[in-house]
Design a protein that fits this description.
Blueprint lengths: L1 E6 L4 E8 L3 E9 L11 H23 L8 E7 L3 H18 L3 E5 H7 L11 E6 L4 E7 L2 E7 L5 H11 L6 H9 L24 H11 L7 H27 L3 E5 L6 H13 L3 E3 L3 H4 L3 H12 L18 H7 L2
Parallel strand pairs: 1-4, 4-5, 6-9, 9-10
Antiparallel strand pairs: 1-2, 2-3, 6-7, 7-8
Helix pairs in contact: 1-2, 3-10, 4-5, 4-6, 5-7, 7-8
């Protein structure tokens, strides 16, 4: 079965052709460089860029996969959460294709897509705990079959958002995560005792706004450590919290597998510490390849296929939603 995946939830325009939910035939990702001068994504610019590039990206994906549009049997598209203007571009295109080709349409939660990225490279016995860490989301889920139980989420800034904001404070280029990681490699992670917001022993929620404020106060001091030391210390504070909460969630839910996905999952320090901590607790850690951690359409196609084979599909009244809580809307549109 050939699935066409479409992902336009933020500033990546992506289309992918996946066979049977796990074989990637193409996965085209076009990042929007127009946002760099602004130090963050400008929603209106993102929407306009998707309008210009989505159809060409789909054509390239089909060509690379050596699959014609008439051979596509399912359209899978992100419809929540994200920038609503960007989501509407992808969803409108997906609806038009599904209608004209007379094939099923499947709307997907962006975070479910991130979690499903792991199934493109390996199969894990359910249930497992997944940490989704990206620019807009930091959440912990227990995954069982196609059921996603939210265990904890960010109360303010997401991990990736904190990286970008602190990078801007330090005068680094956007996106900030890779820049901070690059500089941190030559810094001392113990140089500055930035706070860790563990909240309490029971909570699986995250909070990074206090850490960001601590960086602001530190930068006002006359005497400062080197830039690599600041980056390494900040990164360590974020990583420590992500690792501790993830291990706590896996042990509390009594699962053996811990999955790390999302753009922040590309961070090598986070991967190393998750792997070491999981091993110490006799847990198995899993990471998709970095190319599947950032926003991409292959993960959406994989998620769509897993739901479709269970008999689910959406109708053309499906709407785009900016916020994460889309359960009622999704169930209303299921057939």
């Amino acid at each position: 079965m050939f699935i066409l995946g479409i992902e336009t939830s933020c500033d990546e325009t992506s289309a992918s052709v996946v066979r049977d939910g796990n074989e990637i035939l193409s996965n085209i990702i076009l990042s929007q460089l127009i946002h760099i001068p602004y130090g963050g994504v400008v929603p209106e610019l993102a929407s306009r860029a998707h309008i210009k590039t989505l159809i060409p990206v789909i054509k390239i994906a089909l060509k690379e996969a050596k699959v014609s549009l008439s051979e596509i049997e399912l359209i899978a598209v992100t419809n929540c959460p994200g920038l609503v203007g960007s989501l509407l571009i992808g969803l409108s295109c997906a609806k038009g294709l599904a209608y004209s080709l007379r094939i099923p349409l499947m709307g997907l939660n962006h975070l479910e897509g991130h979690i499903s990225a792991i199934f493109l490279e390996e199969q894990i016995e359910n249930p497992f705990v997944a940490l989704v860490a990206s620019g807009g989301h930091t959440s912990l889920y227990q995954v069982s079959e196609n059921e996603f139980k939210l265990l904890g989420a960010t109360l303010d800034d997401a991990a990736g958002e904190a990286f970008d904001k602190v990078a801007k404070l330090l005068g680094l280029a956007y996106p900030g995560g890779p820049e901070i990681e690059r500089l941190a490699k030559s810094g001392n992670p113990d140089a500055i005792p930035f706070p860790r917001a563990y909240l309490n022993e029971e909570s699986l929620d995250f909070s990074f706004s206090g850490l960001k404020t601590a960086v602001i106060h530190y930068l006002r001091k006359e005497e400062r450590k080197s830039l690599p030391d600041i980056c390494a210390s900040f990164q360590e504070a974020v990583v420590d919290v992500l690792v501790e909460k993830s291990i706590r969630a896996a042990k509390r839910q009594k699962v053996e597998d811990l999955v790390l996905v999302g753009g922040v999952a590309c961070n090598s320090r986070l991967r190393l510490k998750i792997e070491e901590s999981a091993k110490a607790e006799k847990l198995h850690s899993h990471f998709p390849s970095p190319s599947l951690c950032t926003d991409n359409a292959a993960m959406i196609a994989a998620a769509g296929y897993r739901r479709f084979i269970k008999g689910e599909k959406d109708n053309l009244s499906l709407s785009a939603m900016a916020k994460l809580d889309s359960t009622r809307e999704k169930e209303k549109n299921r057939k």
